[in-house]
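Sequence in, structure out.
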Amino acid sequence: MTSTKKDPVLVVLQLAGGNDALNTVIPYGNPKYKDNRPNVFIPEDQVLPINDQIGFNPNMGAMKKIYDEGHMAVIQGVGYPTASRSHFRSMDIWHTCEPIKIGDEGWLGRVVRDLDPQAENVLTAVNFGRGLPRALAAPGVAAASVGNLETYGVLTGIDDTDQRLKALDVFTKVYSPMIGTGPVMDYLAHTGLDALKGADILSSAPGMYSSTVEYGSDTVSQYMRNIVQTHLAGFGTRVLYTTAPFNSFDTHAGELAAHTRLWSETSRAVGDFYDDLKEHNAGENVILMVFSEFGRRVKDNGSGTDHGAGGHCFIIGDQVKGGLYGEYPSLDADKLDDGDLQHNTDFRGVYSTILEKWMGLDAKPIVGGEFEQLAFI
């Protein structure tokens, strides 16, 4: 495990919808790229070069800066055997580490259980966004899910302070007697009381925060700002999660315009997040993982790209050994997976690296086996 002065923290940004790997880390030096992408391609003179073969999307300037500083690892060709092109199934596999059967526990839910086996801290894990991602769901594990940190709370629709306090008292009295009356009622009671306690603690985070970093107005930027606020508040949160919303990276049509906006917002949000931590001297114990459930087809469909397989993920942080990891998947026709990029790095190996070398946990029971780890930590 990497030695840091504070407990290691993992932040996860999920790019929902299936990000186009070919137009993110672009193989501009390979003529087969443009052969397969006569319409949906990035001109070579716009690419932000990594080397003479590949480079970043031109809208990823903020992330390229982190890469150039040596603090971003690009994991190429990430995926899993027998890839699914279903958003729901593929994301389920990434969230549960179960490519064969339907998983009943999220990998990060298992992480939280290992980090806080007695469930002493209701804020060990916090998600920002709608609903709770499957990755954080596990029996007996509490995880807060926040839509807007500035307005987060229980029964916040009641304007009158006295009335709200009375309602909160009733809320507590409804849940407390349920404890000890059976496993289902216990679960519901603890969930309700944990939500009440977590909301009360989290609502104080914005008031403790000030920064010169000006985040964008898009959802991802605001959630990344909320993540920094929560981290700086010192609640003991070890896992923070958010998602680019509404399947936004599902670029079947009009991809060039959509991808420009998406990566402009996402790269800026990641850059602001990194700068904000740096401004507060709070980044030494934080790493960020950025991933998507799959890539897109190698050939374009005229104006966009359809669901594919092997993609890339990014690991960012002061303790990260930046650079390229894994091999860029071949574009040769005989080496494609039914028209998709072949994966060459199992995502569970990425998880295992983070779990063992960063979080200090035994990865095998969390990811369901032993997988080759990488050297980015």
